[in-house]
Amino acid sequence: MKIHISNLSEGVHQYDFHEEPSELGLDERFGRQVVVKAELEKRRNQFFLRVKLETVGRFICDRCADEFDMSLNNEYRMAYVFSRKDAEGYDEDEITLIKENTSLIDISDDVRQFVILSVPLKLLCKEECAGLCSTCGANLNYEECKCHKEALDPRWEKLKNMVNNN
């Protein structure tokens, strides 16, 4: 995903990219194209990039171990400048220093990183996923567990009676 910046006129320029996940170095969980909408604004010696990306990943639920598809959306901004002086006032994570004779900006690695950052730490097929029975392994989303429920610990019996009497 390369954007040519040499001889680019000042103003806002729109770019659309459709990349295969393997071309971006993404693993087999990502089977659908990564769609990127980029807006590059050129002002004197600075380039301001706004990127929106979307794709779909195939994951395994952390609760029930079923496979499911999840839409991933993310956006980021990046400023490309020719000198440290032009970078003042920006967060270091949003600045890339480029050489004066740079003719193109390759956003492939940034897009790959932001796709990966879009994947939540806790992967759930649905928010109300019931998970698996810890005894028999039944998927509680599809079937009721047939395990014998353990009897109440006799030490708690008096407390249960107190609750039931109120």
User: Helical region count?
Assistant: 2
Strand content: 25-35%
Number of E-type strands: 7
Helix content: 10-25%
Give me the secondary-structure category.
Answer: mainly beta
Number of domains: 2
Q: Report the mean per-residue pLDDT as an integer.
A: 88
Which outline best applies? elongated
Amino- and carboxy-terminal Cα gap: 68 Å
Radius of gyration: 26 Å
One letter per element, helices H and strands E, the order comes to: EEEEEEEHH
Main sheet strand line-up = 2-3-4-5-6
Biggest sheet features: 5 strands, mixed
Note poorly predicted spans: none
Characterise the protein shown here.
By secondary structure, the chain is mostly beta strands. The protein folds into 2 domains: 2-118, no CATH class; 130-166, no CATH class. The chain is built from 2 helices and 7 strands. Strands 2-3-4-5-6 form a 5-stranded mixed β-sheet. Strands 1-7 form a two-stranded antiparallel sheet. The longest helix is centred in the C-terminal third of the chain and has 11 residues, at 108-118. The protein is elongated, with a radius of gyration of 26 Å.
Topology:
Layout (H helix, E strand, L loop, with lengths): L1 E3 L6 E9 L14 E10 L2 E15 L6 E15 L13 E3 L6 E3 L1 H11 L38 H9 L1
Parallel strand pairs: 5-6
Antiparallel strand pairs: 1-7, 2-3, 3-4, 4-5
Brief overview, please?
By secondary structure, the protein is mostly beta strands.
What distinguishing features does this structure have?
single chain; 166 residues; mainly beta; 2 domains; two-stranded antiparallel sheet; 35% strand
